[in-house]
Amino acid sequence: MKIQSEYSGLTDIKASSLVKFCTESGYGNDSRLKKLDEKLGGVITRAYDNGEFEGKLNQIMVIYSLSRLPSHRIVLAGVGDKKRLNPDSYRQATGTLSRIPAIKSSESIAFFLDTGDIEKISAAVVEGFMLGRFEMLDHKSDRDKSQEKTKNIRIIGNNPSYIPRIDRGISYGCVSSDSVVLARRLAFQPGNYLPPRKFAAEARTLAKKHKIRCRVLDEKQIRSEKMGALLGVAQGSAEPPRFVILEYNEGKANMKPIVLVGKGITFDSGGLSLKIPEKMPEMKGDMQGGAIVLSAVIAAARLQLPLNIVGLIPLAENMPSSGALKPGDIVVSRKGKSIEIISTDAEGRLILADALDYADSFEPQAVIDIATLTGAALYVLGYSGAPILGNNKKLMDAIRSSADATAEKVWEMPIWDEYRDLMKSPIADLKNSGGKPAGTCTAAAFLENFIGDWPWAHIDIAYTDMEKTGQPYTPKGASGFGMRLLIHLLSNWGN
Hints:
The chain is α/β, with parallel strands linked by helices.
């Protein structure tokens, strides 16, 4: 599919479907919409007068031009109240229309832009369209019968000066949406198709394609690194663990790297602290943090960001067996801290502990970990956003700013001394669970023990990682939440 920019007047555009964005109750102030209406014989006026179309967010109306205009169809896409208009309004509207039959059957689609921050809106249009139409067909027997009808997408500005901004928006939007799709696709893969060794192999292949250095530690090398927490989680599975190290170096030689750490539990049964059966099918996606880190490093390479970035992805299965960790066991982490196992289902923080300690060897300027970590996150923010916790105001402010810019909502939670006390064990240095109360905060208090003297942030994407019902640009299933936030954060790191 080709996506390109173009300069044209609205009524001169030729396409299978021409998309005009409309604000709520904005008909009277939109001269171009009025001109379009004149060409169509007043059909838009009648639609507004009859309440059939009002420009509300995600409202769509398809009009056949019947040769009155060069385009076969005119698609009105509502972006809502003009006072609340932002790039996500366009992302939502485009995601919604990406799945309607008229658009899915269109060989060419033209999106007309004439107002607002053209670069950001262009990026949002690309993201909305590509993410809204995403389908996971890898394991469908008839997947080859599914043919892509749309061959050409044009984002059209009514001013020649818009073209460079549209081009930048298209470039960014393509990388951003491709990265989310990659994270979604990996998270959709069943555990038998993507165990740790196959995830690591996929990471190596993708890294080579994008000229990123990739090292993979096998079980023997993990043992030599004394990663006892990661090994403890993996010991219940026939699948051996892996530890992926990605290095992207396009910053100055003396620039300290930003380290991204992603949880990579390729299937989480809960271990001997077994999960309930209803939750088990979703647990193939417990590596979505790792998928996002892999995708984020690739995105940085594609955008040619002037940064040094390290991606760390500890990979394991958490399974019950005669060799699995038992509640009451003690493991020793890479940092040398002993950990009493209270719940084998609190395994994510164990593999992150060794990865966070390993991050210290890179002398980072900052470390960000992202993980489907706690069930307690559901009772903090529900399905709407991700709790974030950390130790550096500047880093947390930057994450919040990127969250606002990408509409991937986050909310900062505290790490109080009371939570730190809950993670102390009477027989070891730490325990891996402080119980249900404040579970998201106590998990972060546990991770805090393994960070060095650098800014650190933890993003808990549990319950934002899976879309339950389907949203405008997030179909049901793995969401890739946090991916666009990280790309925006990295793209604006110098600021």
